[in-house]
Amino acid sequence: MAAALAALFATVFVVLAITGTARMYTPVPFWDMWGATLGFYIAINDGASWLWWAQHNEHRIVLSRLLFWMDYEFFGGLSIFLLTMNYVFVALAVILFWRISRARLQHLASPTRRSIVFFTSCFLIAWLFQWMQHENLAWAFQSQFFLAQLLPLCAFYLLHKSAINDKAYATFAAACLLGIASAGTMANGILTLPLMTVYALLTRMRLWQALTLISLTVVTLTLYFQEFSSPQQHGSITDALTQQPLQVAQYVLLYLGTPFYYLFGRSEIGNVAAVASTGLMALITFFFLFRGIKAPRENTLPLALVFSISYLAGTALGTAAGRIMFGVYQATSFRYTTPALMAWACLLMLLLPWLWQQGQRYPRRILTSIAVTVGLMLNLQLDAARAQHQLVFDRKLAGLALTLGIEDEAQILHVFEMSPSLMRTAEAAEASRLGMFAIYPWRGLKSSLGQPIVNDSLPQCAGHVDIVSTITPDQNYIVLQGWLFNSQQRQTPQLITLADTSGVISGYALTGQARPDVAEAVDANAYRSGFRGYVDRELAGETIILVGDTAPCQLTVELPTEMQNP
Fold first, then answer.
1. pLDDT tens-digit profile of 318-345?
2. What predicted TM-score, i.e. pTM, was given to this entire model?
3. How far apart are CA 285 and CA 295, in angstroms?
4. Engineering a disulfide at 495: which of 441, 516, 523, 557 sits with its beta carbon 3.0 to 4.6 angstroms away?
């Protein structure tokens, strides 16, 4: 019974996380993706091979760029592959921690060990799939955030395996390759090889192994910083530590304690919980470090976990140095919960034998602690089930503006800051039918403007144009907002074609905006009948025809001459 509940608990967390990602999904690129995925793919196809190693801010995201290229080359550039890989990387982390937990409990009898490892793994699945990191799980651009934690941990684990077996040459080679690859995830990845070198010296690995790691460290760092330029908007670690040492310390404490900051409600209590928990993490880590230093050959795995936590602490420090100018509480950004969750998973592995012993002595206390933690986690995880209609609608509509080449700055800001570069990227992608521009409802819309609409006799739509407003800075189009519904089929069309009375296509609109007022007054199925779209400014004050597609119907309306300002 307990095993079934544990498995159900883990499954619920994964299902909720996937549900949340699905609810937020849209094929419209979001923020950095316009330049770093779509723009990157276009440039690579144009022969700019140097971009593979180019900086993205302070990072060299080589491995993620490979995934970005694969997404457009083989999977249509719709981000589904990239989002799937985010979950694959978390699953790989769970598998790695499963192996570590088995090693940490190898002194136990087989049935007992299997039972403890099973319950620990169920908890880790829930822990690592927490929705608090939705900015990473549900954003197709963030594979590097998972790789930057996973690869170094794998490298330290394999280094431990080679430390206990002098003849494990292949294992050591794999650890070295992962150390090198870590530099191609994010900037913090460059810490991996130096820490691996210290680990090799501390655990008294063979001299040739330590020299190999030293050489790889020098070569990798030299290549990484060749022609490197620090982003102007980020600070330096020296300035941060000398000018704002207390703020940096608070930033690091909050950063590593973000899971508890969110679990305790993002309040003052959460703030205290985050700082206190990170302090506790530091004490426990130092304890295992000192114990490992005294007997390094007997503590290779605990030391590997200690060095993994040290790597993640270094990540927090590096982030603090570059981001402290944005304020201390920038450390609690949702995307930073991923490295913090990994750090706490490492700490759990360190404490696992001790926790088992405490469970034998004080079962009620341990079970109560687990129940409270699980309750807090589940309460937060339920946020993943919330509908995201407005978010999805706003991003799809921004995609429509970019498809048509309309400079609606306020709308486009839902997916990126408007700029000439963004408009050029969107224009090139639309012309080449890449990604979202190759699928419904955006495909071919721009080229169809000015063409006659095929308008057979269609039933009358129910609907209304509520608001007509101007656009900043584009003066060639106006924005229409209202609702449209096919009462006969009791369905809402997805794409609305806007034509003048002669049947010439002059714009488009998308439905999907929540209209509870329409649902109450007209039909419950009309809940998402709200639309917003663009039509030629010359039609202001004229009669236009709105034609729905998936639930075909049409509505004739007269637009007002006076328009609202945005």
1. 888 878 878 888 888 989 999 999 999 9
2. 0.93
3. 16
4. 441
